[in-house]
Amino acid sequence: MLRHVVLFTWTAETGPERRAETLAALRRLREEVGGMAAFAVGPDAGLADGNAHTALVADFPDAEAFGRYAGHPRHLQVVAEHVKPFLAARTAAQYEI
Hints:
By secondary structure, the protein is α+β, with helices and mostly antiparallel strands. About 35% of the residues lie in helices and about 35% in strands.
């Protein structure tokens, strides 16, 4: 099993409505792309200063399933339309669980 973790920090200009639209688009990836054993995305709880604004965690059966997700046209479209234009910083890691 492979876990994919992404932390997003939005630009200062990215307001609450835009963030909510981006979260909704990211959440739909589970149905629109599929292949995940588990999938969760949500805003930071605001418990500590300096955290990223949004976290996404997805579990895949194997690296091949992750690769299909990463290269899927709908995933790439969501990233291009809902993530990259509003992104200040992004970090990610994949690891075996």
